[in-house]
Amino acid sequence: MVPPQDLKVDVVIPALNEEKSIGLVLDAIPKGWVRRVIVVDNGSTDETAQKAKDAGAEVIFESRKGYGSACLAGLAFARLNPPDIVVFLDADFSDNPAELPRLIEPILVRDAEMVIGSRTIGPRQRGALLPQAVMGNKLACTLVEFLFDYHFSDLGPFRAITWEALERMSMRDPDFGWTVEMQVKAARLKIPSVEVPVSYKKRVGTSKITGTVKGTVLAGYKILYTIFAHAVDDE
What we know:
By secondary structure, the chain is an alpha/beta fold. The protein is built from 8 helices and 7 strands. The chain has a 7-stranded mixed β-sheet, sandwiched between helices.
């Protein structure tokens, strides 16, 4: 599929000390599909911001730490000149940015307003998705289906969503609950959503979440808290 000439796609990439991978990510984003790439430096102490600028990204800075905080800052910047579609992508080069059109196509043919790139149904390098991530994903997705009657197989960060749907969601979570908040709100608002398989490989560098015991525990707690908080609010 060739992207429509008037299609405006912005990519938002939260980044924290990813100088070794950010250039690889930006170079792999397919040309012609993206209007601009917004890299949100979330307090890096290395050359992440400079390398992102050198690769052609628009770089903004968010001092409040947290994955969700960085995403919210990226959306606030995008809101000054809104796109049609936002793609969220991690800066660690574990996802394959070349697969971006795969996430956008269901939106273009009006099959969905949100598309999740699922690592669990796509091919992945052995050891790329750690056991705690696999188990946490399965539990969270099972709960979402049970409580909200929306099926997902993954909380993967590589995702595309229309700007209109994103604005309806009024996203708020500043940290680990960002991805599941988006999926729960899609379920509550009955936003048409699909999954597409994406490939996944070991990240460049060490994970700041599943790579540590503290990060794993905090992320797991926040994800479950977010699901149940929205379930209670829905009643």
